[in-house]
Design the sequence.
């Protein structure tokens, strides 16, 4: 590996270490994993008309609060 390549690699690696100490490339937040899954879940729930179904099951709780939570995850 050339010296220039090593310097660039070292710089990139330092830039991808978050204040939490975790390498950003290994982080689900940085990679957008949770965001993407929240979007996919919302799409499935909409397709299945879950908003109408959930009212039958009291144990599922308040769908509007769950929907707000999903919206926060996808942003």
Sequence:
């Amino acid at each position: 590996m050339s010296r220039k390549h090593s310097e660039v690699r070292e710089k990139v690696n330092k830039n991808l270490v978050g204040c939490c100490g975790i390498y950003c490339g290994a982080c689900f937040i940085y990679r957008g994993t949770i965001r993407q899954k929240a979007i996919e879940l919302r799409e499935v729930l909409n397709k299945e008309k879950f908003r109408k179904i959930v009212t039958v099951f009291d144990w599922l709780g308040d769908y509007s609060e769950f929907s707000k939570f999903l919206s926060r995850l996808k942003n």
Notes: The longest helix spans residues 33-47. The helical segments are 3-15, 28-31, 33-47, 50-53, 63-74. DSSP finds five helices and no strands in the chain. The chain has two domains: 1-31, 32-75.
